[in-house]
Specification:
Two copies of one chain form a homodimer. Chain A is α/β, with parallel strands linked by helices. Chain A has 21 helices and ten strands. Chain A has a five-stranded parallel beta sheet with strand order 2-3-1-4-5, sandwiched between helices. In chain A, strands 7-8-6-9-10 form a five-stranded parallel beta sheet, sandwiched between helices. In chain A, helix 3 crosses helix 11 and helix 13 crosses helix 21.
Chain lengths: 489, 489
């Protein structure tokens, strides 16, 4: 990976100055175009050993580019706020929106590199982690992010010289860090090379930048950015790899929802007793000290008028209001539209010791967006895997994910719609869109069927809730939440 | 993954018969279209537990489709021939070309499933294996293969009934197999579900087929094939995810080739002595009993007239001719063009105890195909990773990969071209194409630079050979082969 960067590459100060003015102007112009057209997000990763010049490149980019649309973030050890959230949260949080330019130093490569440098990981774990990174970057690319990954490489001799120099200039800090390492510089380079190689994919390859000579390094970075932005802005769409065929509907029209017994019900007395018990149980568990190490993400999806709101209230009522938050998911805002579709959910994730309730969720991608054609087939088809990866990240962090589909019959929905229309204080709950969705009843059933099949994982299974009887539904929801939470406490 | 298939799904014999005739006709017509237009290869994978009806589905497909263009392969434990080759070889060997339909039973899912059923693998190893499968299938999809993966699923009750029945009917065989398993049926289903989930990607999702009722099962499979083929045949190209930008050339035009000292030379006396020693050494090693457990894949690339032929001869002369084979790689044949680009190399892989020499190779993808625009940018950009995966497969099998780039100067090439033109018996060696390639000298140098950077892996590094002096080059090639081989014997 570093063969060509081990070659001596030089540009004189004079040549640099000559070329810099034109490059800078062109970069500003390209950036202006990008901003103006809000064409795509540009995300630059800067990696390389200490002393390779990451700071200097940042300074140069800061000087060359319009700082209004440039967001530089250096990721070091996670802060307390970051530690309270899944590992990838801080990267999502800082993703540039369309039209903007983000520069990450450190990035999601920091952990695997650091872990290997101090000699912690085994081979299979590394491979696994790199595969997850590749899937993540592929998702970014497919969501339209232009990802440029620069690996600043110092040749062997130059690298030794700089590390010595840094230690001398900055005192012991780096030397101490170095002493924590179990590997020599050349072993670290080998690990780095391997990581760079395995994560150099067709959609997100590394660009290795020879960095012995600062002028050469900075011009290379600048030119690469310029070429990449220009090409992408000018790019005519090329034909995609044909997407996989969408699943055909079950021949008998029978979906997982048909397995539900909608007659399930609960008497008012039983309901009151069980509800009180469950709410107490949930309250106790979320007040428990042990709860502060975990957290809950509760997803509510279901037919219109199936009673999501009522079920959600029964859950939230049981919990200390400082620990719970309900997120109503409607159409994305402009800011959210300028990001990959999962972004708006990442920003709403609970910290440890908290419960986040999603009234509708990321599953909109494979429900309404699929059915209304808001995204292409290939996009919702890849979403199943992306959502599973997303939820696996949350689970790995200790979050408990509960997912409910509240199901009612078509007749019951009609009854409730009419009741809403006839009850003044409920009228706001029913809109033309509800009636339009109702016409797509069967399409929704099929989408739910595929969704349950493809995203019911061991760690984040779907619970289908018979919601014809509201009492039955609320108790089933609460007891599921309690049981799942109990399982981890 | 199996939730909807756990539902009771039935179609009566009467309904089946009614629908079958039309489906069959439509399938034949779609197949005819596919053949006629040689549109794409259709590869169907059939998976599922014993008794789920794989055999019956095969019989049905055999009855429904034109057998001339249908190739059914059942993969069981590898045969001796298959064991002598890398694990994926037998799947490559049986890949359907464009226009044809292949059905694989067993397939590359056999090993991870079997290993987990008998309880061998650890979690990270499984994740790693599944990631490799996903990359492989993505490559197939991007090469244009329509991949349909059917997972025949029996509901819990039906499954038990069938396994008992099979054991009764066929004697002890399956029972014995079962006794070897360390897990119960439901644990096996859980592993299967997990594998199916993790390998259900956007480009190659699993289709779970409810299989309790044979009519339902067969119609589902038939309909899915029909829909998928029709849609793909009719598909208008959709815009692709924008590809990553191609690497910009080094600003100073300096490539890895500029690091070579082309003055390197060897006197005739030294040459003769060293050559004789090395050839003897190579001969001894390849005759050694231990060599029968490994094998060598030697790749020769280089400038035109750099002396690949002469170097290759010095290698092959040293080896028992029954153990060595030279493959000259020119433009692909029609048959090869109907397959993914790596196919023609898989078919030429050596068995254990053999040496395969490639005079030009799969690196054509990132050299001539890149430079001449024979494939899109995104295609050669993804090829680096695909080639690394390919070579990792070979290495895992015990093959030693040596890769040479023979480099001469532009002046020396001109001298040799002229010499060839002026020497009657060498004139066949020089063509108009050689002269045309010469005009693209710099483009080749850049392509070599990127190739060496991106495919010089720990297990399959490139060796750049200073070939201005033929004697020096031949000795360097031979000694590299000897050293690498010695490392594994």
């Amino acid at each position: 990976m570093f063969q060509s960067a081990e070659q001596p590459h030089e540009i004189s100060k004079f040549d640099f100055k000559q070329q810099e003015a034109a490059l800078r102007e062109a970069l500003l112009e390209a950036q202006f175009d990008l901003v103006e057209r809000q064409a795509f997000p540009l995300l630059i990763l800067l990696a390389g050993l200490d002393g390779a010049g990451k700071g200097a490149v940042l300074a140069r980019l800061g000087a060359w580019l319009d700082p209004h649309h440039l967001h530089i973030v250096a990721f070091d050890r996670p802060t307390d706020v970051e530690k309270a959230r899944p590992r990838m949260w801080r990267y999502w949080y800082n993703l540039p929106p369309r039209g903007k330019l983000g520069v990450f130093v450190g990035s999601w490569y920091r952990e695997p590199l650091a872990a290997h440098v101090i000699g912690k990981r085994d081979e299979n774990a590394l491979v696994r982690e790199l595969a997850a990174i590749n899937r993540f970057e592929q998702m970014l690319a497919e969501e339209g992010v232009l990802l440029l990954k620069f690996w600043l490489h110092l040749s062997g001799g130059e690298s030794k010289r700089r590390l010595r120099e840094i230690a001398r200039e900055e005192g012991v800090r780096h030397v101490v860090e170095q002493r924590g390492w179990k590997q020599t510089r050349s072993e670290i380079v080998t690990v780095g090379e391997r990581i760079a190689m395995d994560t150099s994919t067709g959609l997100a390859p590394w660009v290795v930048v020879p960095s012995d000579n600062a002028y050469y390094r900075d011009l290379s970075v600048g030119r690469t950015i310029l070429e990449a932005v220009r090409k992408r802005l000018a790019a005519a769409p090329v034909p995609a790899t044909p997407s996989a065929p969408a699943p055909i509907p079950p021949l008998d029209g029978r979906t997982v929802l048909d397995g539900l017994d909608l007659e399930s019900s609960l008497s008012p007395t039983d309901y009151r007793r069980q509800l009180a018990e469950l709410q107490q149980r949930l309250g106790r568990m979320t007040d428990d000290r042990r709860f502060r190490k975990v957290g809950v993400v509760a997803v509510f999806e279901g037919n219109d008028a199936a009673g999501k709101g009522g079920s959600i209230r029964r859950v939230t009522m049981s919990i200390d209001p400082r620990r719970v938050r309900v997120h109503s998911i409607a159409a994305p805002t402009d800011e959210e539209k300028a990001q990959p579709y999962l972004w708006r959910f990442w920003r709403r994730l609970p910290g440890r010791g908290h419960v986040a309730v999603f009234d509708r969720s990321w599953y909109g991608r494979v429900l309404v967006e699929r059915i209304e054609g808001f995204c292409a087939d290939r996009d919702w088809l890849r979403a199943y895997g992306e959502i599973n990866d997303f939820e696996a990240d949350l689970t790995a962090h200790g979050l408990v994910i509960v997912k409910f589909w509240l199901a009612i019959s078509k007749d019951e929905q009609l009854r409730r719609f009419k009741e809403r229309e006839n009850t003044p204080f409920k009228r706001y709950k029913i809109t033309d869109e509800d009636w339009r969705n109702r016409e797509k009843w069967d399409a929704y059933a099929l989408a739910v069927n595929d969704m349950v099949d493809r995203t019911s994982t061991e760690h984040a299974p779907w619970t289908l809730v018979e919601a014809e009887d509201k009492r039955y539904a609320r108790v089933k929801v609460l007891s599921t939440v309690c049981d799942r939470l109990e399982g981890v406490l």
